[in-house]
């Protein structure tokens, strides 16, 4: 029997392959072009791709005399479109081991820093809707930048939906581990190829190889703590 009432999963890097940095850079440059900036500074493009804060976004827009809301609307639209096109063209796909967690004996959910509408697309496109009782991505607003992980906001909303007390969060980044800790959850860090050698400052409850390990853990077949 599982010691968890529920399991929450990140999406990019856990359920599906993460978006390539160049794809995100191209989408960001397209957004700049749409609002009249043909040659944005490389450092500004990189800052947005790396996870811009509200303050950084406002400074970048001030440098080009742009309204932050206007630029951000364009950026989010181009970013989402580029992601959906990559899924549809087969450039990005679902990890094979996701099949190991679609029938877990506990309620499951998805919590991601990606757009809520993108997560909705992913679950439908890869036929994963039945595997998850709830899911959260962030809204396409500037305000959502302050609510994404490592903020525990969306994790807490998912926990409330599932009425769960003992919850495991599965992710592939430091911010996932920190967000889980802030939400009072145990965490599992999955070492996908893109994070195989990552050295974490925050310590996850479990350090695992793949989703088969997660499934074994949740079913009570294995317990490998970090």
TrEMBL record:
Record key words, sorted: Hydrolase
| UniProt xrefs under InterPro entries | HAD-like_hydrolase_sf, HAD-like_sf, HAD-SF_hydro_IA, HAD_2, HAD_sf
Name the source's superkingdom: Archaea
- Please list the GO biological process terms of this entry: DNA repair
**Coiled-coil blocks:** none
Annotated Gene Ontology MF terms? phosphoglycolate phosphatase activity
Keyword DNA damage in the entry? The reply is no
Q: What Pfam families does this protein's entry cite?
A: HAD_2
Q: Which NCBIfam families does the annotation name?
A: HAD-SF-IA-v1
Family membership, please give it: Belongs to the HAD-like hydrolase superfamily.
- The protein in question is named HAD family hydrolase
**Organism of derivation:** Natrarchaeobius chitinivorans
């Amino acid at each position: 029997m599982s010691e968890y009432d529920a399991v929450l999963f990140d999406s990019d890097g856990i359920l599906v392959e993460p978006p390539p940095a160049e794809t995100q850079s191209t989408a960001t440059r397209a957004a700049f072009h749409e609002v009249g900036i043909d040659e944005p500074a490389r450092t500004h493009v990189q800052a947005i791709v790396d996870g811009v804060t509200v303050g950084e976004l406002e400074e970048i827009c001030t440098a080009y005399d742009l309204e932050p809301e206007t630029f951000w609307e364009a950026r989010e639209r181009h970013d989402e479109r580029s992601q959906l096109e990559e899924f549809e063209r087969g450039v990005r796909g679902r990890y094979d081991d996701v099949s190991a967690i679609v029938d877990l004996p506990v309620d499951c959910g998805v919590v991601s820093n990606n757009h809520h509408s993108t997560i909705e697309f992913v679950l439908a496109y890869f036929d994963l809707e039945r595997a998850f009782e709830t899911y959260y991505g962030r809204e396409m607003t500037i305000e959502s930048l302050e609510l994404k992980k490592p903020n525990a906001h969306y994790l807490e909303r998912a926990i409330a939906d599932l009425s769960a007390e003992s919850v495991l969060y599965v992710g592939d980044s430091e911010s996932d581990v920190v967000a889980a800790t802030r939400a009072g959850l145990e965490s599992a860090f999955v070492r996908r190829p893109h994070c195989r050698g990552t050295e974490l400052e925050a310590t996850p409850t479990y350090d695992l190889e793949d989703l088969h390990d997660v499934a074994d853990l949740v079913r009570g077949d294995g317990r490998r703590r970090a």
